[in-house]
Amino acid sequence: MSCSERQLWYLFYQFGASTRALAVYGAHPDRYEEQLRQYIDEIHPDDLPYIFQNPGSSQNSHYIITIYPREVRRGSFGRKFASRRVFDMVWEKHLSCRVDLMKEFYDLFLTSPIKATPAGWVFKDRMHQLLKTNQTLQLFPILPHCARKNVIFDDYVASKTKTPLTEFQLTGSKEHRLVEGVKLRTNHYCRPESSNFAAVDSVLLIDPPGELPILFMFRMAWNKTKHGIKLHGLPKVDKPLVPPDTRKYLVIVTPENIHPGITVPVKYFSGTVDVRSEETDRDEGEDTNKDQDEETDEDQDEETDEGQDEETDDDQGEETDDDQGDAAGGAQWALFRVFHYPVDLDRLFDP
User: Fold this and answer.
1) Residue pLDDT, tens place only, 11-23
2) Residue 219 in contact with residue 120, Cβ under 8 Å?
3) Is 73 helix (H, G, I), strand (E, B) or coil?
4) Could you list the residue range(s) of the whole structural domain that residue 267 is in?
5) Are residues 171 and 242 located together in one domain of the fold?
6) How many CA atoms lie within 13 Å of 217's alpha carbon, on the beta-carbon side?
């Protein structure tokens, strides 16, 4: 039976299917997924690291592993997960309940730049697990230091000004799906579908006694020090219904040795933010804007079509000096802050 080009692309991008698999299952991607799931189910979890390091030890390893030539030593080959979807299937079946295997795979993926992307996947998925428990969040406020068309937050600036540590005690919660129009509930840890809410990886609404509610918007960042939030990204997080005057805290979650910088569109604040002198802004803003354009393979793999939208001149042109001096902006700034949550890797995989 003939298959369409769309079916072939789906099979390749979703599962990293081999040429032979494309020929056999091209017209029936569902059968390939069923076969893949069956094989993953049959693997003993303790055998996974060995199979990954020695693909020839299993006749079915091609379902989960892609072999590629090394750039420097052409006589040797590297190995990586066939796709993010395949990794997710392995995670759900075997890794999610085995912290020891998580750490083993995390360490394994650190050995080369190509395999480093799955190390980021392990980091993110493990953090999703931990943020659903009664963790104590130790957050460092990241301060803005430039306001032109964007507000640039830089952890380096926070360290120079010795900003204090802020702690929040979480309670246990179940995971829920974040969809447009949903009313967020207190202590409900919500993760969006991959094609939605590109600015964040999860959100959590808490209601501290005697204080305004807080919506934590978590952004996981494993191996990149500069991040850009697209103009459409953060306002889209506002669509879920939250209590009035909810404080919105954008929390950048990284390993402790990563010092993040993040750029947020100034338009989102509807007004002003406190910045340093114009001369300093000009010098440092130019350097940081250069850095923010750098993207890792991890980000490129996971970006959606929406996430690739660029800011237009019209969007940027709407920001005026009057807007930046607006008193209402100060109130908005009081409700929106950016934090760094550095994670101790030695404790990341504690049972």
Assistant:
1) 999 999 888 888 8
2) no
3) coil
4) 134-348
5) yes
6) 22
